[in-house]
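In full, the data.
>
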Amino acid sequence: MTRLVFERDLISYELTDIFDTLAQYPEAAAVVTYIDLSLCVRSVYTSHLTQLTTCINLSTLILSGSKRSDLLFTHSLPLLKSLDFSKSTLSDSLVQSTATHCNSLIALNLQGCSALSSHAVISVSRGCHSLTCLNLARCEKMTDNTLLALSHGCSLLSILDLKRNHRITDKGIRALSQGCPALSTLHLEKCKKITANGLRDLSAQLPRCQTNTD
């Protein structure tokens, strides 16, 4: 059993009981690498994120659709590679705790997390240096400073989705082109302040990068 996909009707104490049972059988917990909590995400609390440390080889965690703004990671998940918080109401504090406790991440999905500030993603750039795939589509508070921080801290970025980010400009795109040489796919659909000049500079610096703007 390497994958756990939790049912829609599970409530908080049932989740607690499941993770408590896993803690009693560490050999079973150790083989769990994938957990999907999206169907019962309303029942997930910080205490459950702490219990996840029982699954010492956890590499993928799905928490999409969370509306709980008080969630936090309080303990490290050192082998977590992929984290999906898409379409969630997240606090900056949660993302900052992610950067502190999940700093082996390769893929982070924050699509539609419109409440997040630029400062939250800047913290990711400082703590998650292995990121290759980052989805910030419809995170409308992102700025050029966000992209500058990513260019400094996440030089391995290969795929970056910035759809419907209305504050970023050519300045931020130029920073990416200079600091993220591995960038191969960049989504800029509905980014109204990106001009032909910025796209031209990006193409000159990263000729192999596929840029989507439609």
Remarks:
- The mean pLDDT is 95.
- The helical segments are 12-24, 26-30, 46-51, 92-101, 118-127, 144-153, 170-179, 196-205.
